[in-house]
Amino acid sequence: KGLTAAGHRVVSSAPDKFTPDTLLVIWNRYSGNHTIANQVERGGGKVIVAENGYLGRGGTSPKFDVHPNGPQPHHYYSLSLGFHNDDTRIRESDTDRWATLDVEIKPWREGGDYVLVCPNRSFGVPGRSMPEDWAKDTAKRLEKFTTLPVRIRKHPGNDAPKHTLQHDLAGAAGVVVWTSSCGIHALAEGIPVICEAPFWICKSTTVTQSTLMALASENSHDLALDRDAALRRMAWAQWTCAEIATGEPFKWLLQ
Question: Which candidate, 253, 255, 249, 237, places its Cα nearest to that of 5?
Fold first, then answer.
């Protein structure tokens, strides 16, 4: 619906030749999708990558919002040009999309009982996907820099968590992620976040506090200093089903 409304002719099978007019829309960029995406880009075309949204209305998790009854008009999905979870190509506007999420940005937390490590699943684009043993290796490195206990929250796609994310964030002094959206929830809760991936939706403006700088290894990437800007930029990287159906997100991404 959305692509048609935006003026595109939609086909379900790949053409014999990719040209600068080709637009590929895929669900995440891994395995065969990544191969086709590379071919499209080599032909001069564009790739839009869809995935679960980052943060739902009221602070919910979009992936789990859809589970009871399927996608609804108000549910969020991310749409990005080139790669999912990458903030380097986000376009912005004076319009405040963050306000529509109705999520309170809480004051920075002081103290905490443990450091929480939140891994992704270790598959995806080469050079961007999380190393298979990243969570365990990160926990070992953190234990050298902090006296706080280090806890690993396993990815819910691999292991059903014993507690909700809100429960696990409740006592956290800091959160360390690869590119997990748990970090976005943590930022909104006022919990400092360290991101170790080269790209992340809040990467360029992830916030930390001096009390947590010692938790970062020498190989951690630099962290910038504006949490509000990070979350407001993130809001331009996800769209509701109703918005997608109008075609406006595709026009926005491609103009």
Answer: 249
Question: How far apart (Å, rounded) are the C-alpha atoms in residues 227 and 250?
Answer: 27
Average pLDDT, the chain: 87
Structure tokens at 19: 């040209």
Write the single-letter amino acid at 20.
Answer: P
238 forms beta bridges with: 78
DSSP secondary structure string for all residues of 119-132 = ---S-SSTTTSPPT
* pLDDT tens digits, one per residue of 158-168: 666 678 899 99
> Which residue shows structure tokens 């309170």?
104
Quote the CA–CA distance of 205 and 195 in Å, as a whole number: 11
Indicate the pTM of the whole model: 0.89
| Measured distance CA(31)–CA(50) in Å, rounded | 15
Phi then psi for residue 142, to 5 deg, are -65, -35
Extract the tokens encoding 129. Answer: 């996907």
> Are 225 and 203 in contact, with CB atoms under 8 Å apart?
no
For residues 172 and 247, what is the distance between their CA atoms, to the nearest angstrom?
40
Contact between residue 27 and residue 7 where contact means Cβ atoms under 8 Å apart: no
Q: What are phi and psi of 246, to 5 degrees?
A: -80, -15
Both tokens assigned to 208: 């930390």
